[in-house]
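Please describe the entry underneath.
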Amino acid sequence: MKKVVVVAFSLLVSFPVFSQNVLTLEECRSMALGNNKEHKIAEEEVFIAGYRKKAAFTKYLPDLSIKGAYIRNEKDIALIGEDMYLPIGTLTESGFAFTPDQINNKWTMVNGQAVPLDAAGQPFNPKTNPEKIQWKQYTTIPKDELTFDTKNIYVGVLNLTQPVFMGGKIVAYNKIAKLNQELALSKQESNRQNVILSVDETYWQIVSLENKKKAVNGLIELLNKMDHDVSLMKETGVATKADELSVQVKQNEAEMALLKIDNGISLSKMLLAQYCGIPIDREFSLADENLEEIPLTEIDSVNMEQVYENRSELKSLDYATQIYKQKEKVVRADMLPTVALMANYMGTNPNSFDGFQNKFGFTWNVGVVVNIPLLHWGEQIHLLNAAKCETNIANFKLDDVQEKVELQVSQCEFKQTEAKRKLSLAQKNLERAEENLKYATLGFNEGVVPASNLLEAQTAWLTAKSDKIEAEIDAKMSEIYLQKAVGQLGR
């Protein structure tokens, strides 16, 4: 029973903590980054670029593969078309010859030498007209013996290829893969800062509305007290019904303003909850809601060279320019010779190394493969010129964005200066409005100031208070926008 009570008490204690979470700006940023789908996509793109970089490095290494093939032929291979008959002669030191007893030709004497006669009885030279020789004996080469069963052919090859020189293409591909990884990281950083900017805008908007709500609540308290005082004064004949109605109208206006602020807070919190990935109906508060003064930080003097290094958008364009430069080298590599080492271990069935027997025969070979482009009608030159134009376009885009970034930084510095001046004026105006309200309240209580003057003082105070809150938020947002412009947001 005691355990049950302890568990129940723990649940009761922990429930308000869950339902009334107090979130800091850093917690909101962290949750938003963990929940943002585009940021997760950017992370996956970084992983993809990393894997492709590793894949590009493998092009330096030997390629080992096994290939196999099966071929079904309609006919067998026959080396001769019919049976062949070869004469039987004599192998001498000077080559294949014959003796008179191996032929049927008749002989005659010409200039003291025996010369064979052809079928017409004319002497001939057997070396120049061997077809006129009438052999006595022949040997037979049957066609069937030179016909091989090649209807079913099996081939297997174990191939090893090692690139030696590819015109610089492999080196360029590896540099492109590395730059693509840097580009993906740069895009991820851009997305991170965009998410942080959205969270900061909503966060400080809520803080602004909460402070305005406190100001309106304070005004409502003053109006309620004033309504009570005017009612008493009306009974004594000091105030009129018009005074009482004027106060009640101001009360209604304040209630309407409070309703609008509550609606704005609810909608802004829904948006912040959506950014952070928490249920939109979950109640939470912000750590900076009760700040009387919103903290502002000073940014050191802006160094544009440092800004160019910090801005992820400029980094992305710079990486893109370098990638196009490497693509020029890839195209140029197609115009250069390539060299690769090759080694094969292969087997065939029928065995082409042993009389085409129906069994596997194996052999190996090594070699060098060289490819030298000679004539492609200027195709690669045109492609190289196109690649150079793409590089020029990337450079132009980089220069254009640099100019726009410089303008953006100048505008943000100007807006921050103006926001600080506006805040300073708003603070002075609030001080005067508070002093005016103080004397108007004192005079009303003493009966020397009419209700209308006090209402005007209260309205002026609320306006000054709202202006001061808006000026603080404007100053804070101008600070955030400047941090974003110089690439320091969230660092």
Notes: The longest strand covers residues 152-165. Residues 345 and 364 are 4 Å apart (CA to CA). DSSP finds nine helices and 14 strands in the chain.
